[in-house]
Amino acid sequence: MAWFRNLSKFSAINVSHQTQTRNRSAHPFLSSSFDFASRRFISSVNHPTEEKPSVEESSKNRIQYPGLGPTKPHEKPRVVVLGSGWAGCRLMKGLDPKIYDIVCVSPRNHMVFTPLLASTCVGTLEFRSVAEPITSIQPAISREPGSFFFLANCIGIHADKHMVHCEAVTDGYKHLDTWRYTVSYDKLVIALGAQPTTFGIQGVKEHAIFLREVHHAQQIRRKLLHNLMMSDLPGVTEEEKQRLLHCVVVGGGPTGVEFSGELSDFIMRDVRQRYAHVKDYIHVTLIEANEILSTFDDRLRRYATKQLTKSGVRLVRGIVKDVQAEKVILSDDTEVPYGLLVWSTGVGPSPLIQSLNLPKSHGGRIGVDDWLRVPVVQDVFSIGDCSGFVESTGKPTLPALAQVAERQGKYLANLLNRIGKAGGGHANSAKDIELGEPFVYQHLGSMASVGSYKALVDLRQSKEEKGISMAGFVSWFIWRSAYLTRVVSWRNRFYVAINWATTLVFGRDISKI
Amino acid sequence: MAWFRNLSKFSAINVSHQTQTRNRSAHPFLSSSFDFASRRFISSVNHPTEEKPSVEESSKNRIQYPGLGPTKPHEKPRVVVLGSGWAGCRLMKGLDPKIYDIVCVSPRNHMVFTPLLASTCVGTLEFRSVAEPITSIQPAISREPGSFFFLANCIGIHADKHMVHCEAVTDGYKHLDTWRYTVSYDKLVIALGAQPTTFGIQGVKEHAIFLREVHHAQQIRRKLLHNLMMSDLPGVTEEEKQRLLHCVVVGGGPTGVEFSGELSDFIMRDVRQRYAHVKDYIHVTLIEANEILSTFDDRLRRYATKQLTKSGVRLVRGIVKDVQAEKVILSDDTEVPYGLLVWSTGVGPSPLIQSLNLPKSHGGRIGVDDWLRVPVVQDVFSIGDCSGFVESTGKPTLPALAQVAERQGKYLANLLNRIGKAGGGHANSAKDIELGEPFVYQHLGSMASVGSYKALVDLRQSKEEKGISMAGFVSWFIWRSAYLTRVVSWRNRFYVAINWATTLVFGRDISKI
C-alpha cells in the first residue's frame, strides 16, 4: 500500500484502513489446508507433475499454482462440484454447509433457467430474469471460509489422487495470466452437462447460434435486431431483404419449437408495429429431419404443427448437409438463404467428458451405478446430461432434460448429506456406509409452448402409456405457472412475472444494447 | 423465393405467402423520391462523387449506394436528425409527423438515460431500464413510409447540396458489406453530442472505461464482477488482490461522484454479503485535479466530501500523467495500481465535428445563432453538446448537460413545426418566415447522488446567485423522483421503479452474464 501513503488527500476526514487492521489469520487463503503461494508468480515454467492429467497441458507460458490441498481429518470434508447447470446447482442447494465445505468450479457464476431462455431472445423476458447467481442458490459458498466458487474450467481429473485440475477463465483481460491450479476433493460431483451436437456438419459452429447459454440468447437478439435495421437501409435489394429477415431454426425439439413460437409472436405483435417498413419480409422456417416434438403424443404434435403454421412458421422436413455464411444446403441440394440461423438439434458429450478415463455409459456419457456413483473409482459421482447408467444396472440412459438433472441433484445432495452425517464425508471413508434407496427416475411429463398463448402439456410417463395430454391456452397457462414456480429465487420469480406482465401491456423492448 | 418452392413441406396446412401477394408499390423504397439500386451490389468500385465530403473516404472495397434523394414539392419535407442523444430524441419526439418526414441517422437505435447509467454498473438498475428505443420516442419513424431510422454513422455533410453522407454500422457481421449512401434533407439537425476528453494522456483509451453508453456500463460491470471472482482464486497474492479490487475513478464531476457513490453502496451492502472472502480488499479511489463537484455550492461540496469518505471512497487530489495496463501514474510520480479504471473527466468535440467546414463556437463546437441555426449555410441547425453560440450572439457556451440538450431539442421541434406550418418546410424556402422568440436557457439547478441514500440538490441558477441548495435523504428522494418523472416511457418508468424496489428488498444481482 506504499502508493497510497504517498498520495496527498484533500479530505480532512480520516479514512479507516480496514485492510491494514483486519484479522489476517482469519483469511481462508492462509489456513492450513491451503497451499499458498506468497509470490505473485511462482515460477515462469510449470511445476513438474508426477502424472499427467487426462487433458493435454504444459504450454511454457502458463504458470501453475498449487491450489487447494487435501482437507485434514479435523476439518470439514470438501465436496467439489464441477459445473453450474441444473444438476450441479440443485445439488449445491441441497448440500448441508454444516457438514461439507462446497467448492464449485464452473466457467459461469450463475445457473441459467434454460426452459425460459428462448423467451429472452425476443425480449419477452430479460436476460437477468433467467440467470440465478450461484451464491444465491447456496449462500455458504461466499460465506464459509472453506467454500469457494472458482471461475474456471476443469481440465482434468486425477481420481486416484482425489484431485481436479483447473484453469482460470480470464475472459480476455490481458492483465490476468491464464493460470492453472489443482483442487483436492473428498467427494467429487461431475455435473458438466453436454454440448450441442453438429453431426460433423461443416460450418455449423462458424455460422449457427446455439441456444444453451445467456450469451447465445444475447447474440440471437442482437443479430435479429441488427438484421431488422440493416434490411431498412437504403439500397438493400428485395432478395437481400428476404435473406436478412429469414430466420432458420434447425431442430424440431422443444427448444427449436419454443424459439420458433416466440419468434412468430414477436413478429406478429412487435415487428409489425415497430418495423412496419420491413414487416412483410420477415419469416421463420423450422427444419427438422424427422417429426417435430417426437416425444409428444401424436395429437399434440398435430396441434403444434397446426399452431406454428397458422402463426407463419414454415415447417420443412429436410436434412442439412452444409452450412455456409448466408445459406444452408439441404441433402437434396436445396439452398436456404438465411439471416439468422439457430441450431438446436440435441446434445452430446463434450471433449472433456470423452477424454476422461472413467467408465462410460451408452452414448459416451460418464457411467454411474444405481446410486449415481462412478464405478471403479472412489468418491466420484456424476449427474445431469453428462452421465448415464452403466450397462450392468440394466437401466436405460435418461433423456437430457432439466427435470432429470434436477431430480438427480436433489437425490445426490441427500445421499451425500447422509454419508457425511454417518462420518463418511472424508476421502476413502464411505465404504461401510449404508447408501439407502437407489436413484429412480419417474417422468413427470413434458411441456412445450408453441406461441400465441398456446402450449402442449403431456403428463404421461412415457409415449406408450396412458395419461393426460392437452394443448391450448389452458396448457399455456399451466406451462407458465409451472415454470414460474420452478424459478429458483423470489427475486427472479418476481422479475419473470413482471416481465410477462410488461410484455403484455407495453410489448417487447427492441433497443439493441 | 425459388429455394422455398423446392422444399417439401410436412405440414398439410397452406401457408399464406404474404410476401408474394403484398402491394409492392406501397413500399417506400420504390417511391419516386428514392434512388433505388435494383442489383445487390451496384459496382465493385466507388461511384464518382462530384465533391468530396469532409471526412476522407474511398477505400476500394467499399460500395456506395445512392440513398434517399431530395423530396419533391408535393411530398412532405424531410428533417434529417444526426444523433440519438437527449437533444436529438427530444427534438424527434416534438416534431409533427404530419408536417415532416423524419429520418434519424445514428449508430445506436435507442436513447440512453445517462443520469441513471452509473446505477446500472453495479446492478441497482437494469441496462434495459435506462435505454429507450427511438421508435418508442417517435413511433412515426417506423410507421410513416418516408420516415426512417438508419443504423449508421454520419461521415460528412454537404451543406450546399442539402445532403449528408452515411456509412452503415455493420457491427462486425461478415455477411454485411460496409456500405455508404447519401441522404438529402430539407432541414438538417446536427445533434451528434460530444466525446470523452483524454487530455492527450497516453493509455486512457486503451485501459480506462468511459461511462457514456450502455456498453460502457456493461463493460464496467463485467470487469468488476470478473475481478471479484479472480481475486478469490487460489494462489492470488495479497498485493494482486489489492490491485484487482482497487476501483479508480478519474474525474470528480457528477458522473464520477455518482459512480463512486453507487460503487461504495454496492460494496457496503452486496459485496460484504456475497463476496465475504475478499470484502476487505475492495476499495474505491476518486482522483480529481481540482475540487469535486466544482459547480455546486461550497456547503454541498463539503457535504459530498464527507459522505463519500464516510462510505469508504478515498478522495485524492492529483493529476494523472500516464495510464498503464495495471497502474495510473500521477504527476508527482505516485503509482496507483488498479483493477478497474473509470474515466469521466468531461467531454469535447468529436473528430467529425472538428472536421466539419461550418462556423464554430468557443471550444470547437458547431456555432449557432439565437435560433440554433448554423449561420452562413441554409436549413442547418445544431443542438446539444456538439453546439455552442457563435461569438456574435454575445452568449456564453452552455454546459454539456442533459437539461440543456433537452431544452434545445424541445425549442427546435416547436420552431421547425412552426416553419413547416408556415410553408417553409422544404429546402431553401424558410427565408421570409418569422422565427419568433430566440432560444433562452434558464438553468433549473443541479443534482447529484453521493451514495447511502444521500444526494445534493442545488436549485440556484448559477454559482453566484442565491437560492435553495440542500443535501441529505430528502435531496436523495427528490433526486430519484425527479429522474423517475423524466424517464421517457411508462414502460421504463415502471421498470426503474421496480428495479429500485427490488434492489432494496433483494439486493443487487451479481450474475455475470
Automatic annotation (TrEMBL), chains A, B:
It catalyses: a quinone + NADH + H(+) = a quinol + NAD(+); a ubiquinone + NADH + H(+) = a ubiquinol + NAD(+). InterPro entries: FAD/NAD-bd_sf, FAD/NAD-binding_dom, NDH-2, NDH2-like_C. GO terms for molecular function: NADH dehydrogenase (quinone) (non-electrogenic) activity. Residues 48-60 have a biased composition (Basic and acidic residues). Its EC number is 1.6.5.9. Alternative NADH-ubiquinone oxidoreductase which catalyzes the oxidation of mitochondrial NADH does not translocate protons across the inner mitochondrial membrane. Belongs to the NADH dehydrogenase family. This is NADH:ubiquinone reductase (non-electrogenic).
